[in-house]
TonB-dependent receptor plug domain-containing protein
Amino acid sequence: MAAESVEEEGELRDLLSLLDNETDLATRSGMNADFIPGMASILDGDELLLRGARTVWEALSLVPGVAQGLEMTGERQVLSRGVGYSGYTSGNIKLMLDGVSLNSTMQANANALLNLPIEQVERIEVIRGPGASVHGEYAYAGVVNVISRKQERQIHVQAGESGSGGVGGVWYWEDLERDLNLSINFVGVEGKGGAWVDRDALYNIGLESYSNAPGRSDEASRFRSLFVNMEWAGTLASLQILNDEYGDYYGAHHYLPSDDDRLATEQRFITGRISHELIVSETLRASLRAETWRHERSSDLFLMPAGFMGMRSALYVEQDYDEARYQVGADVHWDPNDRHHVLLGLEAARAELLDPPADDWENNRHRRILSALVQDQFRATDRIDLTATVRVDDYSDVGSFVSPRLAGVWRFDSHNIFKLQYARAFRPPTFHDLEYPAEGPVKPSMVSTYELGYVYKQPRWEARFIVYQSELDRPVTIALGGIGFVNSADTRLRGIEMEYEYRVGPDLKLEASASYVDARRLDDDEALEGGTDVLANLALLWRPFTDWTTAAQLRYVGERVRADYDPRDPLPGYTLVDLSLQYRPSINGFFGTLGVKNLTDVDYAYPDQSFVGVRHLMPDDYPRPGRTWWMSVGYNF
């Protein structure tokens, strides 16, 4: 009987892992992910580690329709449904850490969050498609919220090839009598190495004698972060510090830097937040918050090698800037009856450039943002839920925007769920876009998306499908020649995304996803550059013994489309295989994961992003490392 009880408990735990998918990312009210408007992916931190993801950036590639990209000097890019390949201006996704937005007003990105080690992550919540009706700016092609580990006590050490490694930990304390708790989450990691580069852009013009190729790309890194959260009687105070340093990668002009593991760029994010939950009555509650945010970036990028154009020494270009944002907001939740849940949200923010990157920049560049949203979640019947949302954002420098959403969810029965949604979102020009227009003032970009979703659930397996069409008006990109930013031609996306999860038994699980998108510019019917039409993931997780689990992860990326100025054939597709073994007992004590990435040592690359013409193309694009090993071990106490 005891053995049967243990087995039943294990099966129940497996079943619950399929059902426990609550998120407030889509509506700011806690809901099962299967019942929210649109589709959400919720990635568990422990499982991400088991599947070989080492950072948030790598983890996002496990989401259907999401691909990775690199800017030439190491900036991470995330392409959602083919959108996001645009040089220095890749901020088409809202990136948040514990609900605090980290998108830079300067360039709209948040490289430090994408480099966050998975050891610090409890889970990652992802909404595919527009989310501006709830989250405002940069929720253009998706929304990502990284939830850090809090209610744990552990230390961990990680290591990898080329002497990379680091240490981190989580500490948690609580006083139940005073309703007080405190958590501290920290990490410090360093890495060296890079990918082998046979040729750089100097080979295109017959000056290979000046080149550092063949050699490694400079992918040295140093990352440190600290998250402190204190909660007392409904009041939450948080501090987030992320310091991200990395090398030159492939060089600012595609001239390969020397192999000296130099840290060329440093980005620092510091945020502070205070929020309070106010319960007015059984049907009325409010959430009040105040945030401050600071982002500093400094870079000393390799530009040209010694001897080139008669220079006695290598040429580097420095660029530093400092920006800040201050924000207050309030959400009021009202349940007038058992069929309506009404949300009223108000926000006021100021973003300003404290120290511009160049002397010729406009002085005192800043923007004021006032926002208001109204949302009604209406239970039309016991099986049909309707959600209507509208948000208005008024910018002091680029105008006003209205972001509506109308969605319906029909729970046909306990197995079948149908979803229908229309949503519109905007992406305001960044400070960088506004300062460097190539042809005229850079205008905001808009996107309208229509989605039809279906979820089929069984006790041991479930499947999700979504069909969508998105219409992008004036997407912002970097101009040909790299001379500034422009609004490119309107674009249409049509695609399908599929997910499947099957538990063969309590000790064996299969996860699969696939996506297809046809992304085309409407002016010439050409495919959108940088992306691919097909992506797929397949993972097999097997627990041969009680505390041991092994995983095999396959990732397929189809052909990548070239930019118009690039005469080469499309970048070939590839398949990567990662393998890992994890020991994690159910009680406190030692735990660890050992993994191998790119097990079959496949040669693959990310597409070139020079934007300055054929002479500066990387002949072999951006090669990526071959087979590498890594490990992460720790102790729970």
Summary: Residues 2-19 form the longest helix (18 residues). The two ends are 31 Å apart (CA to CA). Residues 1-13, 15-19 have pLDDT under 50 and may be disordered.
